[in-house]
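Before the break, one more example. Copy the sequence into your notebook; we will annotate it together after we see the structure.
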Amino acid sequence: MKKYMISCLLILSLRGFSQTSETAIRNIVRQQQTYWNQNNIAGYTGFFSDDCVLINFLGLYWKGRKQIESEFNKINECCIKPTEVKLEVLDIKFTSSASAVTHIKETLTAKADYTVPGGVVNKGTVNHKFITAVLEKKQGIWKIFAMQVTQVVPFPGPGR
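Here is what the structure looks like once it is written out:
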């Protein structure tokens, strides 16, 4: 009976851990969406660890929160400010009590026409990306440790 009670308590405590950690990670994603839409680059990048690696949808490799913030600031006027983002957490998988992998669907909508290398993005244009983020919990705080962003390009199909 004691073993049964201990097992039940362990399961309940792990479930509580999972819900609390999952809520914290979902809140990070929600806050990042808010900061992007407020054009608050420092707020958006504040959730990255100091040694985070981000590979953006163009394949550029950015290392460290400071570089990530700097690079986002460089493209802010052309490519962030005229957009609105919606981030949807698809799943969260805990690899330990202090690390998790989450998959996020990004929907980016142009609020105005803007120029990018190679062309113009017209107001109302919507594109989609998938984000894989690895988060670590240190000293009770979840931070993004690694992120990979992949642009979704519709498959043209055979004969196209």
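The chain has a mean pLDDT of 91. The helical segments are 2-37, 41-45, 65-80. Try to locate both features in your own notes.
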